[in-house]
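Hello, quick one for you while I still have it in my head. My current little project is about how a certain protein chain folds up. You're getting the sequence in one-letter code plus the fold written as tokens. Would you mind checking whether the tokens look sensible for this chain? Here's the protein in full, and shout if anything looks odd to you:
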Amino acid sequence: MLKPYACDPAFTRGRRHAEPPAPTRSDYQRDRDRIVHSTAFRRLVYKTQVFLNHEGDLFRTRLTHSLEVAQLGRSIARTLGLNEDLVEAIALAHDLGHTPFGHAGQDALDDCLREADPEGGGFEHNLQSLRVVDTLEERYPEFDGLNLTFETREGILKHCSLRHAKALVANEPDGVARRFVDRTQPSLEAQLCNIADEIAYNAHDVDDGVRSGLIDMEQLDEVPLFARFRREAVAQHPTLAGRRLLFETIRRMLSAQVYDVLEATSQALDEAAPTSVDQARRSRPLVSFTEPMATDSQALKRFLRTNLYRHPKVVATTDSAKQVIRDLFQAYRTDFSESAQGRFEPSPRGIADYIAGMTDRYALKEHERLTGRRLFD
């Protein structure tokens, strides 16, 4: 049932290391399974989305976020005739390179790397996700990494600086970073994962924000997207209140965004009429919201950035998290004895790889062991 512009595993551009095909699974199904069984995937359960894991058992983590992205992505892919298995593989792997403590940890590690190695280019979590699946996972005797297909790796590398892209192209001339140099697009499945990621985190950050008590539904009425569907929910269910009203509002928001993507993307596909995967790559971005929905989504992002991500309680937590990362990096640079035990390579990049792979709670445990201080209760 795949459309001509969908990625077909029978015509994959292959793996970096040749392997015989699996007898019962397509290449993209095999990629998905390798990701699910990887160490980095399991670590996502204790990596921050917005709230640190110890702050509440029901807040999203990188793992639950990735599962939600996969669910949304597969639903949209099925209707558009895209490859569901590839979408699922990309969605489950897209955050494998995230540091502990979410974006706070990433920013701190980027600063540490730039200070320690000004020529190294800093830290990018999408590039780190690719490093995880290409190099850092150690599961197979014949090669490093997971040896995923080109199409899955292409989707994992969602963003990449031109500097890093050129470095990747030097080692893999027709590889996954080529499009950042040529200014072409990734597969439609990769484009779909990008927008499913946005839909998922906007919705679940609203849920977690209200659950935390840092924002409330009255504040959210400032956001046109939320207010519209809250009014609809109350009009249909006049006695609805509390968490049921929140859940129903978010459910309607999610559905509306999914149907909007289907409408906008179907129209774009009709106009561009790509007849192959490569034609779709050479077109403008084809998976998108309609313009009104894109405006509403941006308004919700601005609200969350101002009222949740920059809330004084969140900022206080992220400041402490950044200090943990900085202290760990400095401790490992000062004493490379840990590397002698095979824990990391004795270089700034090796230290960054090791820290980026930590869960929140392991980073806190290591910080206390190395510094004697506890920054979180």
